[in-house]
Amino acid sequence: MDFLWSMDTCDVKMYFILIEEPGLSTLLINAGHICYIQESRYMSRLSRSESLQELPVICMGSSYDRFLKVNHLKPVTAKEAELLQALGDDSERLKWYLERDALSTALGLTKDTPVTVELDGKWLQGIVRYVGRLTEPKYTDPIVGTFFGIELQGEDKGKGPSDGTYLSKTLFPCKKDCGIFAPFSRVNPMFSKPKLVSKCLTFPAAQLATQPSSQQAHHQPLSTGDRVTFFMDEDILHGMVMDLEEKDGRTLVIISTDRDEKITLPLDSVIKGELLQQEPEPMETDKAVMSMEEVHPLGLGVDSLVEVTLAIGPGYGTIRWIGTLPGQKGTYAGLELEDGYIGVSNGTFKDHRFFRCLPRQGLFVKLLSCRPDSRFQGASANVLQERQALRSPGALPSSPIASDQVERMLIGRMKGIQGHINSCYMDSALFSLFSCSSVLDSVLFKSTEPRDAPIQSTLLHDIVNPLRSEGFVEGRHIMKLRQQLQELGYCHTFTTEEKDPEEFLTLIMHHIFCLDPLLKLSAGGKVQDSYCYQIFLDNNHSLVLPTVQHLLEHSFHSAGLKLAEVPSCLILQMPRFGKKFKMFQKIIPSLELDITDLLSEGPQQCVLCGQLAFEECVDCFRDPVFSRTGFKVFCRTCSSQVGRKHRLTHSTLCVYLS
């Protein structure tokens, strides 16, 4: 059945780092290399021997066992292994493994953490926006390196090499030259300011006794990373020492302030440590008291990119807070405006702090005054007015089912969508599109023709909302939808015959909601529009337990297809072969799909050296010389020097990439 994938329970792996050279030149591996073994295999060997002297581990980059001495291996967690794997050199990896504090600190770094990042020997200020892999694992490796995507802040904006995109894939949004991807060895957290527990301006004598006097603090030596206090415009400010330098016989302190500013002060103007001061008390958002009238009809929330109307025209920013303001009625949004737009706040309102941003970068507006950033979506500017009718209770789509709730809500008897008279393909399509994803929620409140409004209402009220809130949709609701589609003349056999997902999706998206095609497929220079892609395979494949990534690549290769552009949404139909024959017993879901090699245009990496590729060898797709399967693209150097003689036998040698 389409859209429903079977998943094997993968054997857990145990990871190790090699801390001593094996001593055998034939092994060709160095101290600092990451290795792994299946936990079941390890336990099996342990049960047969009281003391293990050697372990058959697989080293990253290879696919066969190497017997290494147990006392040469140190265990690491999977997350530690991924952090260390981001370091390209074995000796560097071993060095940072031995720096246990740095590795432990890196494990605690999360998104939105203020950090400093090293670039070309200089330390720049930024905020972590992404934590994860940059590429998919190779066929032989279970993991790849974990990198930190950092958006530069303050004076360091514009000093980076990236806009949050890696290999044509956007991992986090930021402005041009304001992003950096770095391993943990080049990232240090900027420790946050300690919060004041007491709300009183007068401190007990015992507490005051623990604070160093100004004179004492001035005489304490400073070093990089120290927290300091200084005075500016009669305000007490705090920051962190970035560097010390000597100039004209004076010691100057370079400080990164808590306002994301970089300043330089004489040493005698800086006090080591933090002098306690009262700061505006954060206000809690009481989301429980928000009425339905206070919820944004387009689902805008914290971290949404929005557009508002300012005196100078449209302004753009990010929602950092939602709630009620002292003395004001209704629900407000606290915006952090983009550079170039002047606000009136630093995240405070009437001496209460609601969020943090740079001075005059904050703005408080009514939530309903915000609209989605028009630069990133093609919705009509009148969507807000068009959807006022949907602001009655229960009219908005429920939130998709979270991953940690799937087992409770979707597995078991009377779960999912109840079938009704050959509706299985339609059921699975609706289940896959709406149960755990909100990508296509826009069709649930898009303007439609009056005659199609009942179909939209049935989808929202009788199918999507019950599926997400209760985990179950009764068969009568599916039959109601099929009857409506039949009565409106779209198809006279919708209640009696089985319908393919493609037929159903085309009807819903094209004829009823008038959506633009989601896919543009290129073949032989011609471009064809589609709403979904059916995976087809020829009989010459060698796949046994494939991933969705494998199936998609093989299907595109055998059909000679490419993507003419990056799709806004990629809907796939798994291969199906009737009730009696199955080509695969199981298909492993790919939680992420790398479509770089499927694009007809755009830069690609050489499979051998990682440099910019210029040509693709079509016949190398199934050739195991370079890897077991997959598209093979080469730079000019590798194409001419590596495997050239072997590839001369290929019937179609090279297709030059544009």
UniProtKB/TrEMBL annotation:
Keyword DNA repair: no
EC number(s) from the headed UniProt entry: 3.4.19.12
All copies of domain CAP-Gly, residue ranges: 138-183, 323-366
Annotated compartments: Cytoplasm, Cytoskeleton, Microtubule organizing center, Centrosome; Cytoplasm, Perinuclear region
Reactions listed under catalytic activity: Thiol-dependent hydrolysis of ester, thioester, amide, peptide and isopeptide bonds formed by the C-terminal Gly of ubiquitin (a 76-residue protein attached to proteins as an intracellular targeting signal)
Any Gene Ontology CC annotation: centrosome
InterPro entries: CAP-Gly_dom_sf (IPR036859), CAP-Gly_domain (IPR000938), Papain-like_cys_pep_sf (IPR038765), Peptidase_C19_UCH (IPR001394), USP (IPR028889)
Domain of life: Eukaryota
Domain USP: 415-658
Biological process annotations from GO: protein deubiquitination; proteolysis
Keyword Cytoplasm listed: yes
Keywords: Cytoplasm, Hydrolase, Metal-binding, Phosphoprotein, Protease, Thiol protease, Ubl conjugation pathway, Zinc
GO-annotated molecular function: cysteine-type deubiquitinase activity; metal ion binding
Membership in a protein family: Belongs to the peptidase C19 family.
Stated name of the protein: ubiquitinyl hydrolase 1
Organism: Oncorhynchus tshawytscha
Gene that this polypeptide is encoded by: cyldl
